[in-house]
């Protein structure tokens, strides 16, 4: 029996690092998919690659694996188990979450390897 189902999103994404004082660009807020993380000393954005950001640093060419949910907040170990599969396959990840699900970002050049590792570990992966 399969574990969770993941879906590969069509778009390619970029992870940006901005100063904590920098305003979030309007293009980000009008996009249909983005993540914002802000702390006392950093502002991070995950956006589709076609959104141009004046960032301190940017890391391009990420693909997204969405854990199809909704996932109940009381569920334990989903992120850890998927992360362990990808770590064992030597695949770097960047993870973001919403209230209902988790998103694993992998570099485009490792997407096929990530999908193969997840399928071998009995996850369904929709492409």
From TrEMBL:
<dbReference type="InterPro" id="IPR016540">
    <property type="entry name" value="UCP008459"/>
</dbReference>
<dbReference type="InterPro" id="IPR045865">
    <property type="entry name" value="ACT-like_dom_sf"/>
</dbReference>
<protein>
    <submittedName>
        <fullName>Uncharacterized protein</fullName>
    </submittedName>
</protein>
<dbReference type="Pfam" id="PF21631">
    <property type="entry name" value="A9CJY8-like_N"/>
</dbReference>
<dbReference type="InterPro" id="IPR027795">
    <property type="entry name" value="CASTOR_ACT_dom"/>
</dbReference>
<dbReference type="InterPro" id="IPR051719">
    <property type="entry name" value="CASTOR_mTORC1"/>
</dbReference>
<dbReference type="Pfam" id="PF13840">
    <property type="entry name" value="ACT_7"/>
</dbReference>
<feature type="domain" description="CASTOR ACT">
    <location>
        <begin position="57"/>
        <end position="119"/>
    </location>
</feature>
<feature type="domain" description="A9CJY8-like N-terminal">
    <location>
        <begin position="13"/>
        <end position="52"/>
    </location>
</feature>
<dbReference type="InterPro" id="IPR049447">
    <property type="entry name" value="A9CJY8-like_N"/>
</dbReference>
């Amino acid at each position: 029996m399969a574990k969770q189902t993941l879906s590969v999103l069509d778009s390619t994404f970029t992870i940006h690092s901005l100063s904590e004082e920098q305003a979030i660009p309007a293009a980000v807020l009008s996009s249909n998919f983005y993540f914002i993380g802000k702390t006392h000393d950093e502002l991070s954005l995950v956006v589709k690659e076609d959104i141009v950001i004046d960032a301190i640093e940017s890391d391009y060419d990420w693909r997204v694996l969405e854990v199809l949910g909704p996932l109940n907040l009381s569920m334990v170990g989903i992120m850890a188990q998927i992360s362990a599969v990808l770590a064992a396959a030597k695949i770097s990840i960047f993870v973001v979450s919403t209230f209902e699900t988790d998103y694993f970002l992998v570099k485009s050049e490792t997407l096929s390897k990530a999908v193969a590792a997840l399928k071998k570990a009995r996850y369904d992966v929709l492409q």
